[in-house]
Design a protein that fits this description.
Elements (H helix, E strand, L loop, with lengths): L10 E7 L5 H10 L3 E3 L7 H7 L4 H5 L2 E4 L7 H13 L4 E8 L2 H11 L11 H18 L2 E4 L5 H11 L8 E8 L10 E4 L20 H8 L2 H21 L6 E8 L5 H15 L4 E5 L9
Parallel strand pairs: 1-3, 1-4, 2-3, 4-5, 6-8, 6-9, 7-8
Helix pairs in contact: 1-7, 5-6
């Protein structure tokens, strides 16, 4: 039986700050960490949203991140009282203010050629000055202020997660098998072609089996080419996995292909998955074409 209070949202991060400073990037980072993310929310609606999300698994397990900025017309009127109300109900409520210098903001707007939200009858620099005046009080009351001037996306991500105390693991490794006759998976990061191995499809007693069966894997392990391939592939995948975490990418997709996607590719994907799972990686296995028929 579920105990009272278990399905309660424990953390909410309100993201605000200067337009063009990186609020959307911050929201994406929180979303990648499992937070329920919502953009351009009027503050008055936040308590209602949290009530609705008490049955949302991600919101309960990780938290809610919401961008509130000058696009919400009632920002200045409502934010203070909404924050006060939420602090009395939530274990952890934080205001994150994203900042950047005028020079950086002007350069970003000139690069993207987007109009500042307050720039209907003003220059970019004039709009930035007006926004700073509107947000000064909110910046003063913010729990965390991050200046993104000069930061690359990866650097911003690292700093944000560190300041917010969010621990991250490495990306999940997806090992998938496929048949070249059915096309290469479009979302793969790396593709291995294992058609150099003898095809069990043409061995009578193995034809009806798949690469998930021990007999297929045992058959393939009888060829020195498999050992040589694994000796090269394992350290390469381990290296890539070690540096992928720094990019913020949450999934690393290794696709293994053979002719039909039933025997060799399935077996090798299973062997690689078992190895990296034993090494402590978060592993997912998917066999796209395993049931699409055998070749003769």
């Amino acid at each position: 039986m579920e105990r009272a209070g278990e399905k309660k949202i424990k953390r909410c991060v309100i993201i605000t700050g200067m337009s063009g400073a990186g609020k959307s990037s911050a929201l994406n980072i929180f979303e990648d960490q499992g937070f329920y993310a919502i953009d351009n929310l009027p503050p008055s609606l936040l308590p209602q949203l949290l009530d609705v999300l008490e049955n949302n698994q991600s919101a309960v397990a990780n938290g809610v991140a919401a961008v509130v900025d000058v696009r919400s017309e009632d920002l200045l009127n409502d934010l203070d009282k909404v924050v006060a109300k939420l602090r009395s109900h939530l274990p952890l409520l934080e205001i994150l203010f994203v900042e950047a210098t005028d020079d950086n903001l002007v350069r970003r707007y000139e690069t993207t050629r987007r109009r500042h939200p307050l720039g209907v009858d003003s220059t970019i620099l004039g709009s930035i000055e007006s926004e700073r005046n509107l947000l000064n009080a909110i910046k003063e009351s913010a729990d965390v202020v991050i200046d993104t001037s000069g930061l690359q996306v990866g650097e911003f991500r690292t700093r944000l997660l560190s300041i917010m105390g969010i621990q991250t693991g490495g990306p999940t490794v997806l090992f998938s098998s496929f048949g070249f006759k059915h096309g290469i998976p479009q979302d793969s990061d790396y593709v291995f072609d294992v058609r150099f191995l003898p095809n069990p499809n043409y061995v009578e007693e193995l034809h009806a089996l798949s690469g998930k069966d021990a007999e297929i894997q045992h058959y393939l392990r009888g060829f020195k080419e498999l050992d040589q391939f694994l000796e090269l592939a394992k350290p390469m995948i381990a290296f890539i996995l070690s540096v992928y975490g720094n990019t913020g990418k949450k999934q690393f997709h290794v696709a293994v292909g053979c002719t039909g996607g039933r025997h060799r590719s399935v077996a090798i994907a299973e062997i690689l998955a078992a190895h990296f799972k034993q090494e402590g990686a978060r592993v997912v296995v998917h066999h796209r074409d395993i049931d699409k028929g055998n070749l003769r």
